[in-house]
Amino acid sequence: MIMNEKRSTEYSERGIFGLRFGRKDGHDMRIAIETEQLCKSYGKHMCVKNVDLRVPEGSIYGFLGPNGAGKSTTMKMILGLVNATRGQVSVFGKEMNRKNRLDILKQTGSLIESPSYYGHLTGRENLEIVRTLRGADKREVNEALKTVRMEKQQDKKAGAYSLGMKQRLGLAAALLGKPKILLLDEPTNGLDPAGIQEMRELIRSLPERYGMTVMVSSHLLSEIDQMATHTGIIHKGELIFQDSLEHLHEHSRKRLLLKTGNNEAALRILGELGCRGKMMEDRISLPDMEDEKVAFCIAALVRQDIGVLRVEEYQRNLEDIFLGLTGKQVSL
Question: Looking at the domain assignment, is residue 325 inside a domain?
Answer without folding.
Answer: no
